[in-house]
Write a structure and sequence with these properties.
alpha+beta, OB fold (Dihydrolipoamide Acetyltransferase, E2P)
Length: 232
């Protein structure tokens, strides 16, 4: 039984390779300068493949909305990154970019042998979040670090065009797509109602506390008067 468990462990280890990664924070401006390209788009599909050296890589198929310096064809681009699962073999790289189908992202790219790769692994991947009518890009590795992990998307576009000295190419969007984007970026009324309700509750509590202090004060004064009369 022990030999069987040992054999099973060795099999799992042989089929699963894990590599750790250490990141040095790079400002968004620095990443723009160091990258070959920038892509703003939506993840459509993710698949894995094996390179000639045996390493497993994954490929994200992206519908591009804006791009500079990236190899976009017919409004789509495939961008590779290390790690994945193929034929029972798992190759994990901690810090590699993580994607979900339908996710809106900003990616910094590196062109190598006519292939596009995510530059700086997870450091070069940002998710796009809607904050009311504002779109914020948030980094996977340093989401809360100023100048490294967050930036207004419109400000990022302007900064990138200034550094690269050219404008973004853009995919044409029909009226239907534009209406959907406007709808999803409208602030949810439920959140606003909850905020107002919490403020009203706080004000009511403050009023109640105020009257409680007055009542306790009157009781204290009345008790003092009764005590004086009894002493006389």
């Amino acid at each position: 039984m022990a030999k069987l468990l040992l054999l099973l462990c060795l099999t799992v280890i042989s089929n699963t390779l894990v590599f750790a990664t250490t990141f040095v924070p790079l400002t968004i401006k620095k990443q723009i300068e160091d990258s070959d390209g920038v892509v703003v788009g939506e993840i459509l599909n993710i698949s894995s493949y094996q390179k000639e050296n045996g390493q497993i890589y994954s490929r994200a198929f992206i519908k591009a909305e804006k791009w500079i310096g990236a190899k976009v064809e017919n409004d789509h681009i495939e961008i590779s990154f290390p790690g994945g699962k193929l034929n029972g073999r798992v190759f994990k790289v901690f810090g590699a970019p993580q994607f979900e189908n339908g996710e809106k992202v900003v990616l910094f790219t590196r062109n190598i042998n006519n292939q596009s790769f995510v530059n700086n692994l997870g450091l070069g991947k940002f998710s796009i979040k809607n904050l009311g009518k504002t779109q914020i890009m948030v980094n996977q590795i340093f989401p809360n670090l100023p100048e490294v992990g967050q930036m207004d998307l419109d400000a990022f576009v302007k900064l990138t065009q200034s550094i690269k000295s050219k404008k973004f190419s853009e995919r044409f969007k029909n009226k239907y797509e534009r209406n959907i984007e406007k709808t999803t970026m409208i602030r949810s009324p439920k959140r606003v109602e909850r905020k107002i309700a919490s403020i009203e509750k706080k004000e009511k509590n403050e009023i109640a506390d105020y009257w409680l202090v007055i009542v306790l004060g009157l009781i204290s004064v009345g008790y003092s008067l009764v005590r004086r009369k009894s002493e006389q």
